Amino acid sequence: MTQAHDNPGPATIYTAVARHLHWITAGAVLLMVPAGLAMTYRGNTLNIWDGLTDAMYSAHKLLGFLVLWLVVGRLAYRLINGAPPDEPTLLWWHKAASHLLHWLLYGLLLVVPLLGWIGISLYPSLKIFGLFELPAITSPNQDRAGTILEIHGTLAIVMALLACAHIGAALFHHLIRKDGVLRRMLPGLKQR
After folding, report:
1. ∠ at Cα 66 (54, 141), nearest 5°?
2. Which residue ranges in the chain fall short of pLDDT 70?
């Protein structure tokens, strides 16, 4: 395997805005997937429909709605401002895999919350903490709601697995290849 150069020079980093948007999105996904699994297990598997379950669903819906708009803003920022050039020590297939993985994640970060919103509109279950409702984007149809929410859950798991691959690749580059890939998003990280 080709190792990074002994002295590859400073990594070209993402802007502070891009880095902050990345880490906020990562934190949201880290919260949303386990919370979604926990709430559906509690509500659908254990059939416990109480104040805690309702609060879990409300928090998940609200955070999902916010994540959708965060990712729309993040994607707009990326399309307007671009990204730094690829790490110069990357092999061609690392670059191709990286770009594919990033765009798959962007797509899922849009599609998963959008499907969730469509699903709760179809159900309809738009109330948040009993205080307000999210806007409906389709007419109620509980039969279709189940299908859409099942797809939402499946794609959320796929997104989580791709996020794990993304994390694994970043750690591989930092710990094994010892290149600047991870420092692009964590500029204070020491070169290995």
Report:
1. 55
2. 1-11, 192
